[in-house]
Amino acid sequence: MTLRRFGAAAAVAVVALGLAACGDSGGGSGSGGGNFKIGIKFDQPGLGLKEGSDYKGLDVDVAKYIAKELGHKEGDIQWVQSPSAQRETLIETGQVNMVVATYSITDARKEKVSFAGPYFIAGQDLLVRADDNSITGPDSLTGKKLCSVKGSTSAQKVKDKYPGVQLQEFGTYSECVAALVSKGVDALTTDNTILAGYAAQPQYKGKLKVVGKTFSEERYGVGIKKGDKALCEKINTAIKKMVDDGSWQKAVDANLGPAGFKVDSAVNPPKQDACS
Amino acid sequence: MGDLSFAAVLSAFWLTIQLALFSAVGALVLGTIIAVMRVSPVRVLQMLGTWYVNTFRNTPLTLLMVFGILGATYTLGINLAPSSINDNNFRWAVVMLSVYHAAFVCEALRSGVNTVPAGQAEAARAMGLTFGQTMSQVILPQAFRGAIAPLGSTLIALIKNTTVAAVIGNQEAAGLMSETVENQGSSIGIFLIFALGFVILTLPLGLLFTSMSRRLVVKR
């Protein structure tokens, strides 16, 4: 009897331990035991990419630097996955302290959150097959087939500005890349930083190239709770310091360099907006 | 771009309705053929029907949709509207929605066939009716009336599944919703607008099919 009771207690303990272990890994979103939560993309090569338990990319490096300047140790950081559609919600409900996830500063978004930065200025560009010289920019797209992600800002911009272009839309960029390689479409459009990441993927290396003529300005900012002016100013100071001490350039080279990405030095590194 | 206008919501839901209507017709026709194959006395047709149902019922709809564009259009060159990407997307969406839901229509109809007593088929055969005549004159009319409720459920599922067509770029309700969320951020309000749209489409249908199934059932 005692033995059986002991067995039951042991079983309960084992189950509890198992649950604790599960809770620790956070069900796939977030890691590290820290209390400073930063939202990043987990699936964007060169910007925010989760590799095993490691996080790599420009967004990650910028976020780490800002966190350090705000007085948080690296162990204090908890990374939270923030897909595009959820970024405002994550900030508004306080599930993250800040979002550094290819987050373009726009007026519509400013109604819900505040932005510090920008820390990088990207632009909408075109990705084409390496042997295709007929597309040199958005104006040579007439009669060509273009691909982008359904509902994305890039897709909407093309529809508004270049009505002569036929636009194929998919759920993700990977499908667009597949269509581009199989010659179903002639070009893929979105931020040049994201395109560079796809062009650098091993399976597509040498097959694709970024045209390098941007036709929009995407100002990546740090999303924070609306009206938190003090935090915004601290983050701006941190970004400025990062640029001044050379860490910014180092992070850009390390993350976007391997993709053969040329940073537009006319606008980068950017000057931060005033906080409001 | 930007604000969610009433006109944009209407035109998006109009495309949803068009997708649903065309696919419903396609699925009903195809599903009936498959169901007849499954109950036919020819072994090969039975196996073909069973294979169809098992294959398409168990393939994710998203996969079928993406295959329609990436696989069929761009790799195999089967373009349903060479002059317009949007028309090609729409037609493939209709084809795939039809093909997918035909499997469910087939099973619903087969359940309807099972409500018809076996004696009727035997009596029809004894009278000298062929298989085609037995099916079209005796079995199927009763089977449809017996299968109204499950067919209605399939139609409602089809209406909601039209949202999957957004993954190949159709500007229907789900496509407009993702665009709006991209511009304005997600909010309960946007979600509720689109949820309400689908409730308006599906709830009356559900009530209609329930009352029809009660009125049309073959009293035995």
Automatic annotation (TrEMBL), chain A:
Gene Ontology process terms (BP): amino acid transport
SUPFAM superfamilies tied to this protein: Periplasmic binding protein-like II (SSF53850)
Gene Ontology cellular-component annotations: extracellular region; outer membrane-bounded periplasmic space
Signal peptide residues on this chain, from the entry's feature table: 1-20
PANTHER family, per the entry: ABC TRANSPORTER GLUTAMINE-BINDING PROTEIN GLNH, AMINO ACID ABC TRANSPORTER PERMEASE
InterPro entries in the cross-refs: Bact_solute-bind_prot3 (IPR051455), SBP_3_CS (IPR018313), Solute-binding_3/MltF_N (IPR001638)
Family designation: Belongs to the bacterial solute-binding protein 3 family.
Entry keywords, A to Z: Signal, Transport
PROSITE patterns membership: PROKAR_LIPOPROTEIN, SBP_BACTERIAL_3
Organism field: Pedococcus cremeus
Domain of life: Bacteria
Gene3D superfamilies: Periplasmic binding protein-like II
Annotated ranges, domain Solute-binding protein family 3/N-terminal: 35-259
Protein name per UniProt: Amino acid ABC transporter substrate-binding protein, PAAT family
TrEMBL record, chain B:
Primary localization class, coarse: membrane
Membrane topology, from the record: Multi-pass membrane protein
Record key words, sorted: Amino-acid transport, Cell membrane, Membrane, Transmembrane, Transmembrane helix, Transport
One Pfam family it belongs to: BPD_transp_1
Keyword DNA repair: no
Highest taxon above the source species: Bacteria
One GO molecular-function entry: transmembrane transporter activity
Gene3D superfamilies in UniProt: MetI-like
Keyword Transmembrane: yes
Gene Ontology CC entries for this record: ATP-binding cassette (ABC) transporter complex
InterPro entries associated with the record: AA_ABC_transptr_permease_3TM, ArtM/GltK/GlnP/TcyL/YhdX-like, MetI-like, MetI-like_sf
Domain ABC transmembrane type-1, chain residue ranges per copy: 13-209
Compartments it resides in: Cell membrane
Membrane-spanning residues: 12-37, 58-78, 188-210
GO process annotations (BP): amino acid transport
Family the entry assigns: Belongs to the binding-protein-dependent transport system permease family. HisMQ subfamily.
Name assigned to this protein: Amino acid ABC transporter membrane protein 1, PAAT family
Organism: Pedococcus cremeus
